[in-house]
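Supplementary Methods, section 5.1.

A reviewer requested that the exact input to the structure prediction be made available. We therefore reproduce it here, unchanged from the version used in the analyses.
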Amino acid sequence: MTRTGTGTTPGRFLTVEGIEGVGKSTQAGLIARYLRDAGLRVVETREPGGTEAGEGIREILLRPAPTPMDAETELLLMFAARAEHIARVISPALAGGAWVVCDRFTDASYAYQGGGRGIPRARIAVLEDFVQGQLMPDLTILLDAPLDVGLARTRGRGRADRFELEGPGFFEAVRAAYLERARRDPRRIRVIDASLTVDEVAAAIRNELARLSI
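The structure derived from this sequence is encoded token-by-token as follows.
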């Protein structure tokens, strides 16, 4: 949902999604640089995180632990961080006319907690409505690559977080859920082949940004 801010240009909300190893953080940074070069005011952020409270929740969610976290606890923590993120960062930035570039948002909850953990989509939708209201990204870039490509890129990053320790079956389910989201909402969610080079992916994303009159 486009929010018109008080500045000279309307704020836009862009999100970048995908499984581990597809280059989300790299491409989110390149998007932000491209927008700034176009003279736009940009806020870069991420989920879970983006605020002091959200970063604390992120640490809890990503920290490996001997006892598995309940799937519904995980989902509620994600939306708790998101509520703070929207209130403190995303909504104020959009209201002020900034463009927000977010590394993951609610599509990730449908993919990871829905597809990966098996929580029904309807239950996630209740939290989405409660926390977000009418707020939706103007454009979501879904970086997609075969599972073996993504997971191979995560090797050598250092200690794996709690999600990265999941098996291939989990990530196949996450990827399938992402692609299903894209099929349901092709106008908002644009799938980009993340197995290409960084420059090729960035060029494909810029083509999608042209839809927002960049």
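The radius of gyration is 16 Å. These observations are discussed further in the main text.
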